[in-house]
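During the reporting period the student researcher (J.K.) took over the structure-prediction task from the postdoctoral fellow and processed the backlog of single-chain submissions. One of the processed entries is reproduced below for the supervisory committee.
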Amino acid sequence: MSPATSDKSPAAVEPESALTLLDRDHAILAFNERVLDWAYRPEVPLIERLRYLCIVSSNLDEFFEVRAAPHLAAGVAGDQKGNYTVASFEHLAEAAHLLVARQYALYNDGLIPAFASQGVHIISHGERNPVQRKWVHEYFEREVRPLLIPVGLDPAHPFPQVANKSLNFIVRLGGKDAFGRENPIAIVKVPRVLPRVIRLPAKVSGGKTLFIALSSVVRAHLSSMFPGREVGEFSQFRVTRHSDLAVDEEDVRNLRTALRQGLEHRHYGQAVRLEVSASCAESLASFLLAQFNLPPQALYRVHGPVNLARLTQLIDLLDEPQLKFPPYQASYPITLSPGQSFFDRLQRSDVLIHQPFESFGGVLAFLREAVQDPQVLAIKQTIYRTGTDSELMDLLREAVRRGKEVTVVVELKARFDEEANINWAEMLESIGAQVVYGVVGLKTHAKMLLVTRREGRQMRRYGHLSTGNYNPRTAALYTDISHLTADPLLTADMEAVFVHLASQSRLPKLHRMWLAPFDLHRNLIARIDALGVAAAAGETGRIVAKMNALTDEALIAALVRAGQKGVKIDLIVRGACTLPARVPGLTDNIRVRSVIGRFLEHSRVFYFRQGSDESLYLSSADWMNRNMLRRVELAWPVTDPGLRQRLIDECLVAYLHDGRDAWDLGPDGIYRRVYADTHPGEEGASRAIEAHGAQTALMNRYASRGIRRAASRD
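J.K. obtained the following structure tokens:
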């Protein structure tokens, strides 16, 4: 059964085409609008609605840290030509302001009243009774004041360095200082170590669930920090800085040292956004804009805390299970049996694990067996994001202790995980593992684990390939595919890639894999073009591709060509997509949808069919220029017909028929939420998917399989 039917923007797909691509940065903001929709849904548990609001705030932080600087620079310089201009800056600022306004409107008018109806309150200074004010005062004196040093500005005390995304206060003071001078402006920096949300103890809460914001605690005690002065106007503020580390790898002797030095300066990069309280006086806002060299469009007046993302602390403090999603317990991989040897199992056939519906614990169990098996001689693995507390890294350390040859390719430049990866690399090197950092100028984004085992008189390889990271925490939150295999051709390709990354030697011709930056891009375009040629000759052509982002212009051009020749194309793109769908006369045969659910859609699955001949590839790569040309990425085929059909059903068909959590992209570039199956009559439709969404249907399917298997064991 087959499934139902450069990062630059805007730009034309090709000179002869009238199709103009959508703007990538606006596409990123549109994705966050779709995430924010979950926070608006009344049927979503209240704490989860707050969580989605926090996710959007965190996403916006990263957007400004990584994407805003070129637009800002163009706006300040008055540039009128190029990819970044005054117009691009103004349009992006307008869209961002609208999104932020929606966030705070929901927070104040929707979520705060909803929490109050459940007996959960964040109380301001004015709402606190005398007993509560006394407790807050004692808390401030004990926990907060010792960490604060207010800075009065004068020639000897210039404006202090303010760290990226930190909480601060600006205060206008009346009167004179201890030396008889009028220095009217002071800054109070609030350390990151302090919790942003504090729960009032039962003894002062009157049996209610009461919280206070740290900003409210500081605000209530501003006067006490400036004895002898009058505190007039004041505001909390927060500055976001450009934080994408730039290191010239060709010009450094030690990449690890250069990155560690760069991390020290990340918190003090170019300012790109300033957030202040909505009530902030115009004079104070203008003063701050001047200090950070920002134009008025970079100022965001917010009706609430300047960092909504830190409200995740409130989520952690609330023990209200009825206000959360029911806990989901991932099943043990259905094609594996606990206690069975992975090596015996993989000699029979490959295994797929669909995370998080199936547990990432299966991958850890595979590595654990390899570490404990005396016949395993070598383990090779790529590391991109593992987190700071990783059982997987502990297993690699144990493998070294047991005398196995351990080679780890650590990507030091994994954005915002650089420090954790540097620490892991240093730890592994210190105990004798072979640690390499990939290829200069490229990020190693491929996800591979290769085990070499002595079996009689021969060596046999066993491999794990994945669309996602080796991170147990995110493996419970992201949809990904893990592929375990003993296929000699596929594992030989893995070995060749590891040797290439470690030795920088010429890569031999691979048997099954496509590897970026060498042939992945070229092979994808060739496969798409071949389908277009076949369709023009009268054969049926079909493409269904699932990924996180689609912005590469050459791949988009190939898709447009194929669609114009009759290939039916469905693209399931979670995030930014710059290809406009269903544009009459141009992309009539291309449909684009985004699915936003409880879990983050992260798997990359590419399906191609020409007549009755079908192929399916899994990949670590999104269809972006950087992934194709500036990263080490993998795509590999799933050749087992049963496993391939399972991927078609679960990763493609289910999402094409999702009637609850999907958004379809219109020819006007606007996403509209789907409220019913939009692929009626096509093979694979499911009432469960239409009624509950693909993810919920898969959760139910795997839960029932787990129950049946447990019952059969009993």
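The committee noted the following: The longest strand covers residues 230-241.
J.K. will present the remaining backlog at the next meeting.
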